[in-house]
Write a structure and sequence with these properties.
Shape: globular
Strand order of the largest sheet: 3-2-1-4-5-6
Helix content: 40-55%
Number of helices: 10
Radius of gyration: 19 Å
Distance between the termini: 37 Å
Strand content: 15-25%
Structural class: alpha/beta
């Protein structure tokens, strides 16, 4: 990343998610310049002005509407463009429409940007991460899908609530697809440094793991059904990715990128695994211990994504 003390972030897509991300970047003081790009220039300008006016109470962040030429010197480009998921619609069902949108967006970005670092948020995020990497030709580590970062946050919240525990004490991952075949990795879950089973034994607490897993998987659909869209949670998830890129922290987050041949039958797809995040993007992937049932679920998740990706490419 640059050493000038200035950070420019371009957000492509000025809908609810893009606007929430821009607001979060401003509130968390993660950028000195935020540019909102959208085909609907009036919407992008209105969103940028609204966030910028708030900066007057908080910090000197410049927020404006602009075009794809702003990508030329951006530190990070965040892609939120696409059609929103409707109630009852799976993320994979969105792909047929959103892949064509994201192809055009990526071509426009690459017209101006040289070796950009792109975060893909648009759904279905895994499929669209693959499309951005394919069209851009960028190294896989520089195209990061938000993946199961939000699902993991939901998972940890759903675990902490019945236990009366602090969510920051919980380390547990949702991995695989950001969608219906996601995999809750219970076998390596840790609370306050203790394996989950040991924590439950010492505290006398109980967890309905099946109910928590299902509630986590359907959490996004629940919010959409209640209020029509999700955007605050994903904005915080993206903010965490941005923060660790800009700080070059090496922090571990469950995000997606196109996996290489070393991942065997998971190769060739954007799949969420615990990844070290730094200034150049994804700097490494960690292997989380899993039991045989979890490994089989991960293989199934990979197969679902591969089969659908094959249909998309056709």
């Amino acid at each position: 990343m640059n050493n000038s003390g200035k950070n420019k972030i371009v957000v492509v897509g000025a809908g609810n998610v893009g606007e929430a991300i821009a607001y979060t970047l401003m509130v968390r003081k993660q950028a000195t310049d935020v540019v909102m790009v959208d085909l609907n220039e009036a919407r992008a300008k209105g969103a940028a002005l609204d966030v910028f006016h708030g900066a007057g109470f908080h910090c000197p962040v410049r927020v404006k509407q602009g075009g794809y030429e702003e990508c030329a010197d951006a530190d990070i480009i965040i892609v939120t463009a696409g059609i929103a998921r409707k109630p009852g619609q799976t993320r994979l069902e969105l792909a047929k429409t959103n892949v064509s949108i994201i192809k055009s967006v990526t071509e426009s970005i690459m017209e101006y940007a040289k070796n950009p670092l792109i975060i893909v948020v648009s759904n279905p995020a895994d499929i669209l991460t693959m499309e951005v990497q394919r069209v851009s030709g960028l190294p896989a580590e520089r195209v990061i899908g938000s993946g199961t970062s939000l699902d993991t946050a939901r998972f940890r919240c759903n675990i902490c609530e019945p236990l009366g525990a602090d969510v920051e004490d919980i380390q547990a991952y949702i991995l695989g697809e950001h969608g219906d075949s996601q995999v809750p990795v219970w076998s390596s879950a840790v609370i306050a440094g203790l394996p989950l089973d040991e924590y439950l034994r010492q505290t006398g607490k109980e967890l309905d793991r099946a109910e928590i897993s299902e509630h986590t998987k359907t959490g996004g659909a629940e919010v959409i059904g209640l209020k029509g869209a999700t955007f605050y949670g994903v904005a915080m998830a993206v903010s965490a990715i941005v923060e660790n890129i800009l700080r070059d922290s090496g922090a571990v987050l469950p995000v997606a990128h196109v996996l290489d041949d070393s991942f065997d039958n998971w190769s060739g797809i954007a799949f969420s695994l615990p990844c070290r995040i730094g200034g150049t993007g994804i700097q490494g992937v960690l292997k989380v211990p899993m039991n045989e049932e979890e490994k089989a679920a991960m293989d199934n998740s990979a197969k679902i994504l591969k089969d659908f990706w094959a249909q998309v490419k056709e």
